[in-house]
Amino acid sequence: PKAILLKDYAAPAWWIETVDLSFDLRDGGTLVTSRLGVRRNLDVVRAPLVLDGQELELVSVTVGDRPLGPDDYAITPDHLTIPDLPGDQVAIEIVTRIHPEKNTALEGLYKSSGNYCTQCEAEGFRKITYFQDRPDVMAKYRVRVEGDRAAYPVLLSNGNLVDQGDAGDGRHWALWEDPWPKPCYLFALVAGNLVHIEDRFRTRSGRDVTLRIYVEPGNEDKCAHAMESLIKSMKWDEDVYGLEYDLDIFNIVAVGDFNMGAMENKSLNVFNTKYILARPDTATDTDFLGIEAVVAHEYFHNWTGNRVTCRDWFQLSLKEGLTVFRDQQFSADMNSAPVKRIQDVTRLRQVQFAEDAGPTAHPVRPDSYIEINNFYTPTVYEKGAEVLRMYHTLLGAAGYRRGIDLYFARHDGQAVTTDDFLAAMRDANPDAGVDWEQFRRWYAQAGTPGVSGEGSYDPATHTYRLTLRQFLAPTPGQPVKLPMLIPVSLGLVGPDGKDQALTLAGEDSATAGTRVLALNAAEQSFTFTEVPAPPVPSLFRGFSAPIKLSFDYSDADLTFLMANDSDPFNRWEAGQTLASRLLLGLVADRAAGRDMAVPKGFIDAMGATLSRASEDPAFASLALTLPSENYLGQLMEVIDVDGIHAARNLVRAAIGRTHRDALLAAYRANAEQGEFSVSPDAIGRRALKNAALAYLLAADDADGKALALAQYRTATGMTDVITALALIADSDMPERADALATFAAKWKDEALVMDKWFMIQATSSRPDTLANVTALLSHPGFNIRNPNKVYSLVGGFTGNAVAFHAADGSGYEFLADRVIELNKLNPQVASRMAKSFARWRKYDGERQAAAKVALERVAHTPDLSRDVYEIIARSLE
Ligand code: B3K
Ligand code: ZN
């Protein structure tokens, strides 16, 4: 397979301005008729019209009124080329036949539980009809959908329903028209037996919008939260970004078989049921928050992605980084901002930093790919969102908004680049004093910058000198890196625990608080004057840049910041830094054959956090959580899987034993009371209660076990039920088997709930986990064709460090088998699973050897998809 390069981008020789599609949906073959209005692009050299198409059966091609014969065009497995088009403006009709019922890749038009739906981003439209499948070709669509009335009572596409009727023979049709030009990746069609809930939203300029969520019959009672989230998003986008919805109708359809979370098709979002369906007894707090965030994300795409789209797929972060940042801001406004920030940074470190440190590292704006579906990555999404956050930090809320307004004023209706976005931010803020050429490196250079430094206080002159250095390691294809523009949001915390003034040498006296400095050289010193007493610096408040900090804090400094920093993120961060330091020390002790002794100071600090827990239960639950095994692994040169697991469990047990009474008290104080709610407060209290329960079980506490069993048996909300069940499933309590069985019996018909059941077994650290997971592949509730099932069972297992990285290589062998099996069915899901191999070189020799065998076995599989090939080839490089 050949790589596609950013530098090869060229505008198309032809524009397609109108698309008239007609779908004749039938089992055994769907006929697609496409009438295109094409116009020559006079700005480029004359060239034939080359259309993309894959797995299509061509029935006929007509240019003007002339039917073409096979000699009039050229056809390959990927293209249809029509040479010598007459004139500059031509009408073309193309008829193809496709087989959605056989489509297991879930890309293009396919069936999920008997209903037709589409997924076109990134390049699925070419599996529906021949077309210039590229985002810079924007057209107006009219779509006629015809199908059996009884089987598919609901027929949907983008835009407005303009007509419908009876087609005879038990069939009916609907005609949809979308007035907004769009790239074909935003096309959608749904035909099925669906029911809907409905609400309305009046935009601030007075447009009444009908909002509908379509689901399979029986799920109507699980849509309310998604609908509320949609309405909140529409309002928030008006208030914060000044962006209003632009049609009279907004539809969401939830389907059970979907490769990712959801898709922002114009006015017809298609969602994975996971991000729509929720009832307190079926969905966890994480699910409720996930739904709010994803519904918002897809809605926000209406402007950032749809009205202004990407010129080419290298620009993917133009819409994804921006839209993730927008959904993060939204969720922060709807819930607790510090909690949201801590969760987002935890995820960034867990998945994006890991990606940046491995063979699949790539810039936010990649410059080459083999399969674009492999680039819907944490780097493009989450690091992309951090880049947006840095614009916001450097320009302030008002400057950022000026940039956004200019971006839309310039580019509404266009397909543009991340450079265009940067230019709008720059031009709207001429006095910002930002070196934009340097800032641009955040898009171009891969890897996570490291920042190190130290500070010194001079009591004679009352000055504090802070020195910071930055370093960016080479990544694949980028041996040499240049210094980045790194926004450092900082405070100087005085001995009284209060922020001191931040006056740089030569400035007028500043006020106390937080300020943002630009670190733009390899090494830089900042001298603060009028500092009355030696401070502890609080650096990168709110995580103001996606970097790895190593600053020469003493343990006492960190404990001080944990208790005193005015920035909640950095209070949490100080605890995490302290915990990582301690845990890695224990891992080293164990490796050297020394006893692991847990320092009392840390256990006391956790006790202090616990004693303050009632002030902010949500924050406390995060502050009490130790860094994950995966994150600790990233801090090691060679990942000591078993050592990390042992050290972390030892510390957890020590906390559980030492603070038993306080944990029991926290459990009881936060037990469910009153009506169920997903308010931030209620979620926070549940999180604290369940964190306390987990510590009690870590200490093998008898009362804790009894509480877990009682909670499993009597709780009504899924958060409490599944947390208790996960703890039981991870133990060797005699009730384990029975608890797992009663859960499965109760929920066997609720696919999303069963996903959780598979997940908790796959993530257990019991020694029999691989055997259990292997047996579960044959469970009647498991289906390898359903992506959610694969993500729960196989994905859950690969995230389980001790089991997946078992020294005997059994975990790698298991994954290779699944990747090979999935490669034939669904390349996107296969490749997502294959990414778990990527960091194999970070493990010891024995594990590396086993991983290599597994990787090579996948590499030698016949008919390897481009998706899997690209990941495996990069991993082996
Ligand atoms: N834009 C889609 C993702 C499409 C993934 C294609 N493999 C969902 C989103 O980011 O909103
Ligand atoms: Zn998105």
Automatic annotation (TrEMBL):
It catalyses: Release of an N-terminal amino acid, Xaa-|-Yaa- from a peptide, amide or arylamide. Xaa is preferably Ala, but may be most amino acids including Pro (slow action). When a terminal hydrophobic residue is followed by a prolyl residue, the two may be released as an intact Xaa-Pro dipeptide. Keywords: Aminopeptidase, Hydrolase, Metal-binding, Metalloprotease, Protease, Zinc. Residues 555-877 form the Peptidase M1 alanyl aminopeptidase C-terminal domain. Residues 89-186 form the Aminopeptidase N-like N-terminal domain. Gene3D superfamilies: 2.60.40.1840, 3.30.2010.30, Neutral Protease Domain 2 (1.10.390.10), Peptidase M1, alanyl aminopeptidase, C-terminal domain (1.25.50.10), tricorn interacting facor f3 domain (2.60.40.1730). This is Aminopeptidase N. GO terms for biological process: proteolysis. SUPFAM superfamilies: Leukotriene A4 hydrolase N-terminal domain, Metalloproteases ('zincins'), catalytic domain. It comes from Niveispirillum cyanobacteriorum. Its EC number is 3.4.11.2. Its cofactor is Zn(2+).
